[in-house]
Request: fold
Amino acid sequence: MIILTQRYFIPSNKNFLMLMFCLIASLGILQSEPHAANIQGQSLLTPDDSDYYNKTYIPYDDGVYDNQIKTVLLHKSGFELSQPILSLNGSETLLLSFDELGSDLKKYRYTLLHCNADGLPSRLLKNEYIDGFTDNEISDYAFSYNTTVKFVHYATTFPNDNCKILRSGCYFVLVYEDKTPDKYILMKKFWVLEPSISIQATAKQANLIEERKYKQEVNFSLNLGSFRVNDPSRTLKVFVTQNGRKDCSKDLKPSMYKGNVLEYIYESEDLFDGGNEFRHLDLKSIKHNTDRVLRTDFDTGYYHIFLKPDEKRTFKVYETDDDINGRLLIKTEEGKNTNTESEYVWAYFNLPMASPVLTGNVYLLGAICNWQYNKTSLLHYDYRHQCYSTRLLLKQGYYNYQYVVLETGSKCADVAFIEGNHYETSNEYNIWVYYRSNAEDYDQLIGFTTIQSNQ
Reply:
């Protein structure tokens, strides 16, 4: 007799049980933990999956290191959907905000960490890139109001009079408990641009015949103008990223030199999967079911929102859909103050599939999971109901997401397996240009641009 359970078969005979368990595990069917994959020496698996927190190690990666910390956002002040990029000596500021579940008020401080182009710490001392205090208090806070789940909302803006930035490049803002700098709770990446060159770029359907239906190519040129660069292949670091993804960036070298213009035009090195438009989830209201919501229950002090089963789109015809390229926007229709009156709800995701993926794991992709592959974004296969499922504790708002497969040993998750692959998809591409001169000991961010495909 074999009893069917939610995740796998359990024979009544104990010896047969052990034999079957070993066989299934060897085939990779039972996977309780995500597979690790490295990108430029860093693990795709994030703090939720490993013992990152200790008193002497800072991971230098976007991450949350306290389970009570939720909805960490960093963007330009007043522009919720913007990327966290500032111009050196400019007037714009960044707004960092996060929630801590519960009603206990704590004191937090933040500091800024300068990094090289690869996101690892630079050799600069803090007083070489910060003018003012190197550690500052987060003094802006508010308690949640009229919500079933209590939380404290924290926020701060920088640069400010107490903390001015002196160098361009890649940065992290590190938040920690007051008087205990070794007890950090989150890190968030941002950039400071020192515009020195111009970038001309296009993202369009791939030229290669065999890839034209599925891929997009990003061609661009750098006009150095009067900015002097010695040995560009060595001193310039140029990266191209798609949407907010951290796992599939391209590190490119110039393909041609034309005076002070560097061209980056390739046959295959600059190709990206077109993928598909992001799915959406509207949680702005808990009183009314939106188009993706099946039902809403209230139990044990939480709202539980069950989504309609998602559909595998591998071979479906491309359909245009206005998305926000994987971002999220916090918003409630039941209150006036989005920051403190938005409810936290459990959202249940369901992706029917006849059989599990044997060669890797299925994850949610997007800002909904901080663009990371970890225990939070991992979906588990339910053999009884033949589907992948998970649940996330989310603050009310509007979310984009996709389902991807990260195969064992791969550096880049596969969107096409579940979402399909189309050259027509509207994607956002970012081009980052870093420069390190012989006279400097850090990577300057001298160029940046964002383009949309098929426009």
The chain is about 5% helix and 40% strand.
